[in-house]
Fold Glycosyl transferase.
Amino acid sequence: MLYLRRRRPQVLLALDTRANRIAVRAKRWFGERLDVWPSLRNALPKPDNDRHATRQLRTLRSIAEGCDGIIAISQGLADEFRSLTGADSAHVHVIHNPVVNDVLRAKLEASVSHPWLTANRQVPVVLTVARLEPQKDLKTLLRAIAVLNERCPCRLLVIGEGKEAAALASLAADLGVADQVDWLGFQINPYAYMKQADLFVLSSRSEGFGNVLVEALAAGVPVVSTRCPHGPLEILADGRYGALVPVGDWRALAAAMATTLAKPPSVEILRQRAEVFTMERCGARYMQVLGLQEAADGRER
């Protein structure tokens, strides 16, 4: 609050749940002198009898009532928020994450060395980048890899760490695909692997948006994703830029992977789709929604 009193900004944009609560308190303090915009970036709680979920819903409703507007990073999140809180449609704005920028483009050009990623390889390589946590549902992906290997050989590279690492490695062994899966752990530049892979797969149960899908599109690699709430449906334009399958359905996932590997889409089309989510486009949308574009234009004159 001291910072706000000293600097007197026109707009306060909050970027996570805790910041949203603080921003609403700031609105009560400063009133019309400060426009407050909380943002929605993660899956929302489901209305049930769970006390924690009930508290979260109360918080969401207080946020909806105590701000000048809401920014959601996906249309699905915006729709769900309006359903849960009764917020007016005009009060909630969708601005997708600004994923593609010069830093990402440079990292995509980096080289990477892996014995499976040779130029003349005969076995396709599937890549996923995810925390090894239940939300990402890599168990479904491993089962899909096992089914796919019954039809045609393939390999899976997994970039990421998490509490399910041991259980997932054990499942891969039980499924008979331990030799077809390489666990790479944390990688400082996963994007170099993306550009070399034959297919990228997202198997999540839920997402706020799904930045990694945009990153894969920017790399020009074909993608397959679960139709999870929220983000993949919008990023892939309801399947136009990559197959979407039901959450948890490893047979459907394996079938979509096989189809995409057999007939991949144009690299250029995928990269063009990623350009919808650039820093420049999304930044301009923020300036417009927050009412800052006119002030910015005035400074440039």
In short: The longest helix spans residues 51-65. The two ends are 33 Å apart (CA to CA).
